[in-house]
């Protein structure tokens, strides 16, 4: 029987759409993360997804740096060094635990912005573009079967860390995405209903 005549709708075409939303709505943050991390081909897909972020003025304000393999040891040194400079009164031994952050995932992607001060595009919009690129990356990481965790904090905003990671003085580190394989696949926590955060505007109230 012809489904169009019977009133039934063939859902075959909607299955890829359903699969997409199943993936999108199952994303969650994972911490800590284990080996393996993404392959070079998968990393290419992750960064290509970042390039699809909205970008007013085609400024491409995003900058990324990869930290992995043996470089994590030196990154651990950097984390201790910048914390010591930030808290000079604290004994260095009390800051050594910060080194372990470098080993909580096989790959760390440093997220930074290179805002163009001469552009007509407000800096806020440029930073939002970097945030959108980071979210695209997190979704791509999840879709490939890995886990991601976006961390910020004092280290991200410390100019000494920015310099140690070879970013320009005009560039701003906005955080780190830790990437790897989740140690557990527990279902995500129940999220709040979107209805709590959405309202419909029905026009201007009479004055």
From TrEMBL:
FMN binds at residues 27-29, 52, 56, 150-152. The keyword Methyltransferase does not apply. This is Putative NAD(P)H nitroreductase. Belongs to the nitroreductase family. Its cofactor is FMN. Binds 1 FMN per subunit. Residues 34-180 form the Nitroreductase domain. It is an enzyme of class 1 (oxidoreductase). GO terms for molecular function: oxidoreductase activity. InterPro entries: NAD(P)H_nitroreductase (IPR052530), Nitroreductase (IPR029479), Nitroreductase-like (IPR000415), YdjA-like (IPR026021). Keywords: Flavoprotein, FMN, NAD, NADP, Oxidoreductase. It comes from the Bacteria. Its EC number is 1.-.-.-. The keyword Cytoplasm does not apply.
């Amino acid at each position: 029987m012809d489904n169009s005549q019977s009133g039934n709708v063939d859902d075959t075409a909607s299955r890829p759409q359903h699969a997409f939303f199943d993936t999108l709505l199952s994303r969650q943050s994972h911490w800590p993360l284990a080996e393996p991390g993404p392959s070079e081909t998968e990393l290419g897909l992750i960064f290509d997804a970042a390039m699809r972020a909205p970008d007013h003025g085609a400024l491409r304000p995003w900058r990324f740096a990869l930290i992995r393999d043996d470089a994590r040891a030196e990154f651990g040194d950097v984390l201790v060094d910048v914390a010591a400079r930030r808290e000079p009164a604290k004994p260095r031994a009390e800051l050594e635990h910060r080194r372990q952050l470098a080993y909580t995932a096989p790959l760390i992607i440093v997220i930074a912005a290179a805002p163009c001060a001469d552009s007509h595009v407000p800096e806020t919009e440029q930073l939002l573009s970097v945030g959108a690129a980071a979210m695209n990356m997190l979704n791509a990481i999840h879709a490939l079967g890995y886990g991601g965790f976006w961390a910020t904090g004092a280290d991200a905003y410390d100019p000494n860390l920015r310099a140690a990671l070879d970013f320009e003085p005009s560039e701003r580190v906005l955080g780190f995405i830790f990437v790897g394989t989740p140690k557990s696949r527990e279902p995500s926590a129940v999220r709040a209903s979107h209805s709590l955060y959405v309202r419909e505007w029905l026009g201007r109230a009479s004055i």
